[in-house]
Amino acid sequence: MDIVNQLQRQFIDHSTSLHREGIVDDQFTELQKLQDENSPDFVVEVVSLFFEDSEKLLNNMARALEQAQGVDFKQVDASVHQLKGSSSSIGAMRVKNACIAFRSFCEAQNREGCLRCLQKVTHEYSLLKNKLQSLFRLEQQILAAGGSIPVAK
Amino acid sequence: MTALVVDDNMVNRTIHHQLLDNLGIENVAVGNGKEAVDIHCSGKAFDLILMDMDMPIMNGIEATRKLREMGIRSMIAGVSTRSMEQEIREFIEAGLDDYQEKPLTVSKLISIIRKIN
Q: Ranges for the HPt domain (chain A) (predicted)?
């Protein structure tokens, strides 16, 4: 099996596992379908924006929850709402679901619950980031080897 | 056809811009309801406005109401993560022509555009 075929196979397997593990859902596939010759880097660009935005939001949540007294739960909830929205838009299913649970604890003004949720959201986000960066690295390797990226179904 | 994307989330603005671009629809994006009102006050007009609900400074409900008061007759489609009827009723009553739950997809956008045509 030549190197291009091997890399393409790895790409397909990695893509399949992202969906099978629920890390991304069909919305991610919709995003991939928006990429074309006029915007060949669309997915990487929008996901990079998502990473940048998410890290700011996670920092905001952490800072707000650091206050042992007088946590501004509305502020925390606003950040979680933003992250839920953008994770839903890129198809980051597990991050989105973690945000849904997080919002309930914000509404209940439960600091301990929020801290546990923050840990969970951060974990899911880190997992998503690692897996997507691996996917993009495989894409680059396929292109560098002269191959084409298998099309998302 | 021209469109205005109104959303405080940069990721969503980027995706909605690309969705519209791919359908050949010239579009501009702003970050909140006040910017949507201001761009109309500057004389610009759009066939379609994709309006998010929860935004700082001026939310989608206020912006929709204000645009209708200004006599703007463009198709305004609410696009939000809200799904409960009571949550979106006020948004619809502010003057929406359509409402789609996020995430926005090609097929949802096409169904909005069909209503214009």
A: 39-142
